[in-house]
Amino acid sequence: DNGMTVVVEPMPWQRTAAFALTLGGGVVAEPVDRSGLAGMVCEMVQRGAGSHSSRDLVAVQDNLGIDRNSGVSTTTTSFGGAMPADSLSAAIELYADILRRPHLPGDQLDDARAMMVQELRALQDEPTHRVMRRLRQLHYGDRLGRSSHGDEAGLSAITSADVRDFFTNTYHAGGAILGIAGNVDVPRILDEVEAAFGDWKSGDVAVPPRPTGAAAQEHIDAPGAAQTHIGFAFKSVPYGHDDYFRMRAGIGILSDGMSSRLFDRVREQRGLCYTVSAGCHSLPHAGGVFGYAGTTPARAQETLDVTLREIAGLADDLHDDELARWKVRIESGLIMEQESSASRASSLANDVYQLGRPIPTDQLERMIEQITLGDVRDYWAEHPPVEHRIVTFGPDPLILN
Fold this sequence. Notes:
401 residues
């Protein structure tokens, strides 16, 4: 009744159970001058909750055998865990405390800030991260392209009041999604979820802004660097779009596995780089293909030229065996997901968030199997990769030919 969606998939052959809980909010809900606040709140809610101190909370999670995770993305904050099946009921109760009754201890704010600043500085020293972070900003724009790690100015400005305000405004049942999978008794777990979250306050979830990125090329100068790092991106359809899997098949032929085109034709046959890849990214209303190549300065220009040429010319010489290999890889992943309650719980929550409903595994398999080479060719003809965003890091800028 409060707007929280619960989706459960029993996997009775498992000895484990898992949950994935997604909340609205995320990075786009941060004030402009408080970049990093969503991540800070995600950290602070786990520093004591309900009747448990910060140390007690960790001990209880360990005693229950919870392999846990948490994080923030552009539009969501998420928490998840996998555990022995008989620990799930206690885990649901525990996370109700974390999400509804956290202590948010003000005396630990500086410790959390120092930890996040240290992580941020470590990432800033990594050229690949710098390139891909800037590429994301160029592709989606300043709001949707903000990093979940924040920046030092934003992290330094965060106060305890900011933490409590963000928690109050975004940690609620409105738009929340709880995916559960594994060896569970469905009626029982639904009753337990109702008891833990049924009276959780509701609230509105802000509609994310539209992407504002545009074609651009930037170079981060690194005189004397022995490597050149190349990031590239172009628009794509998001997960849930009617054409998504036609697009995904094309990207899979390009970059899924060691037999893919980019790996074989750019790295292996020509020896231009030590790594090259491309992958899909989706927001609820926007998407993109993001790619990366790492090479030497002497081979950087040719690496960029050949990589983009392979992507643009994908549909010119497609072969049945390429599509068949991609289908086997995807279907193998779906089979493996059936052996992982954590993967399935995460997929359930993501499907509901992106599509409004979960996709049964057998239905997804049928969708994949029905894709033809003609579907891939048609998609590439209708949505050619244009308006590239290019970011490079190295001693010399490159030219987009």
